[in-house]
Amino acid sequence: MLFRKGIKVILKQFVKATLKFYLLFKPNPPFERSKVKKVLVYAYTGLGNFILFTPTLRAIRKYLPQASFTLLYSNDTGCQEVVKGSSLFDKYIVVKRNADWWTKLKWIYRFRKDKYDLIISEFHNNNLFMVILTVLSGAKYRLGHVTSSGWDNPWDWIYNIPVKMKENQHERDRYLELAYALGISEQDVDKKPFIHIDANDRNFAKRFFASHGIDSRHKIVSIQLGTSPAMRWKQWGLDKYRKLCDEILKLPNTKVILLGSPDEVDMIEKVAAKVTNGRPIVAAGKTTVKQSTAIIEKSDLLICNDSGLMHVAVAVDTPVVAIYGPTDYTRTAPLGKKHTIIRKDLNCSPCFRLNGTKRVENCPYGYKCLKLITVEEVFEVVRKKLELKEGWNFNDKTTSRYSFGKKLKAKRSSGMPESSQTKCKLCGSTQLQKIVSKGKVGYFKCAQCGLVMQIPLPDEDKSKAIYDKGASYFRDRRKAVDYIKGETWLKKTASFYISIISQYIKEFNQKKLDILDVGCGTGVLVKAFVDMGHNAQGVELSKWASDFGKKRYKVEIIQGNIEKLNLPLSSYDIITAMHVVEHLRKPQETLRYLVEHLKEGGYLVLATPNSACLTARLVKQYWRYYIPDEHLFLFSPTSLKLLVERVGLRVVGYETALYENVSMTIAYYRLLKQVLKSLAKKIFISINSSINAWGIPVQKWKEQQINFASPKDGLIIITRKKKCTGET
Fold this sequence. Notes:
alpha/beta; Rossmann fold; 4 domains; six-stranded parallel β-sheet; 26 helices; 38% helix
C-alpha cells in the first residue's frame, strides 16, 4: 500500500514538472474577445454548485456571441440537465469521472485537435485529468480560480487568466469573478441563477399532481430528506423529518411530496411508512432532475438540507426552508428574502469550508449543530411561510385562504403605492416608477431593465371578456385599424413584415418553410406566407376572427389559447407573433412555450410597440399604445432583448418600425400633423361650447380618444433558437 502511494506521488510530481516545462514555451497573449471562437467549460461539480455557476455562464455567453460553447461533464451529478435545452451550449461531451486513464488520454487528444480558444474552470474543477487537459489542449486563454483566502490550489500556474476569490464570498459571486476577469461589467450581469425546463417537464408535474389528487385547493410542500451520498453529515435526522411530515399533514388542504435520487428511495420509503397522520407522496426515484424542478416550481415551499435542490428552488422562485449544520452558510445559503436557513450558531460551526472535509468527517461533537435543531422550530417557520404565501391562518378556522389577497387589494385601492408591493416581472427589481396614469390603473417603468407594466393587472375573466367581443373588438376605431375596412392597410403591413423577415432570414426566400403565426387575427399575414409557397398556419384566440379569416382567405387558422393547444413540439422553422407579446399576462412563460415548438435553429419574430420611442416620451398618456387591460407589458429594445435571451433565444437583428420603414423626418412630420389636428379640434370644441352659437354637433369629437403614434413607434425583433449538436 505504501509502495503504491509512493509511486503515485512520484508520478504526480513528474507530471507536474513536465506540464510546467511545457508551459514555459507557450505564449501568454492578452485576452482579446474577438479572437475567441471556441470555448470549453468544465462541469464536474455538484448540481447546486453548477446552478450557482449559471449567471457566470450566461454573462460570458452574452459577452462572446460569436463563439461556440462546449460543456464537458461527468454523468453523476446532473449538471448537464441544468442547461440542456437552453441556448448556453452548442455541444455536450461526457467523460466519466471514474473513466480509465487510457480513455481520458484519448479525450485529451481529441480536445487538442478541436483547438479551443478559451477554457473555463472554476475552483471545484481541479483534478488531475482537467489539469492535464487544460495545459495540453493548446487553448490560448485558460481562465480559472487560483489560491485565495481559505482555499489553496496546487495548480495555480496552469491559468494565464488567474482569478482570486474574496474571503466569505458567496459561491455565486466567486464564479462571477471569472466573468469580471474577462472584462464584463458587473452592471451588465443578471445574477439570478437558472435551470432550464420545458413544457414536457411541466406537463409531467401536472400529470403527477393529478394522479395524486392534488389540485388548486392544496398547499404543496416538497421535502428533500437526503444530500449528496458523500456528504450525509449535512443531513438532518430522518426521524425528525418524519415528525415534521406529521405536523405539516395536520394543516388543512396540505400535501407533502418527498423528493430524492434513486439511491435514496429505500431510505425515503421507510420514512414515509412511519408517518402516522396521512401519507406523504414519494416522488424519489421516479423523476429526472428537470421533472423534480417542475414539481418544485409548482410547490408552495421546499424544505431541505444544504443540497442541490435547494438551489433549484431558488432558480424557480419557490421559497426555501433550509436546515444547515456544518456547512459554511456564507458561501452557499439560498439568496433572496423569501428563503430562510435554520442553523445553530455554535463556536465550532461552520466547520465545513473549502479546504477539504477531514475536519467535518471527524466531528468530535457528534454533529451537535444539526441535532440541536428541533422539529418545533422548523415547523413554526414552515407554518408562518405557508400563511404568508396565501394569507391562510391555520389557527383561525373561519379565515378564508383568500383573505390576504382581499386585504392586499384593499390596500391598493386606498392609495398604497403599487410599486412598493410589486417586482418587475422580467428582472425582479423593485425599482418601479409610475410614468402614466390611465383611469384606475398605472403604467410603471422598471429602472433596471426598462420594462413598462400595468399595475394592477386585470383578472383573467376581465381579460377574456375583452377578446370575446367578436367583430366589435376588431372593428374598434380607437385602435390602429379596422380589420375589415382596413384590409388594404393590413396587406401592406404584411408585406412590410415579410420584407423584414426576408432581410434577416436567408432561408425564407430559398425553400418551403413551416411557419406558425400566433395571434394572427383574420389571417392576412398567414395568407401572404402561403402565397409565397410556405406551409403556414395561424393561431387566433378570437373565434370571430378565425372564422372570418378561414372564410375570407381560405387559410388554416386554429382557434384557441396557444398554450392549451396540442401543437407538435419542435415543428416550425419560423414562428411569428406580431403585436401579441404586449397582451400576454405571462410573456416569459408563453415565449418559452413557443420556443419549444421551434425546430433547432428556428426563428421567432416579434413585433410590439416600443415604449422607449420618442412619441411615448413626448405625449406620455396620449400615446396610442397605452391601452389599459389590453397592453399589459410594453417593451423597450433593452427589455425585449432581455426577455428573448431569458427564454433561450439569440437576437439576429431588430428594426424600430411599426408597419413601414420611413425616415425619422417623415415619421415625426406625420406625428406633428396628428398633434396639430387634435389641438385644432380641441380649440374648436372649446369655442363652440363657450358661445353655443354655431349649432355644429361635436359630441362625436368629444367621445374620440386622443392618442398619437408615429411609424417609428414599434419594434420588430428577429431571434433564433440555438442549434444543439447533442452529446458525443
